[in-house]
TrEMBL record:
Family: Belongs to the UPF0386 family.
Source organism, top-level taxon: Bacteria
InterPro entries documented for this protein: YjhX_toxin (IPR018654)
Protein name: UPF0386 protein FF098_009775
Listed NCBIfam families: PRK13687.1
Amino acid sequence: MNISKAEQRTLHVLARGGCIAVEKDDKGRIIKVNCVTPEGWSLADCTLALFKKLKKRRFIASYDSRPYTITYDGRKAVRGQLDNRG
């Protein structure tokens, strides 16, 4: 499956336990996204367009009005990467 580097990076952060917090306008439309790593840092690669692509491909989902996390399909699509965690 063809996944861009930015998509891989975002999915890898989500697979490690990160989440995507969204900000909505008065009509309930998503206007801003913020991908947060498990360490609390913000990922700059995660844009609204990238978020929409991942959501359309069903790699991320939100359950019970919680922040968006990775789905099973998203875990299958992401390639394994080495972590620098000790």
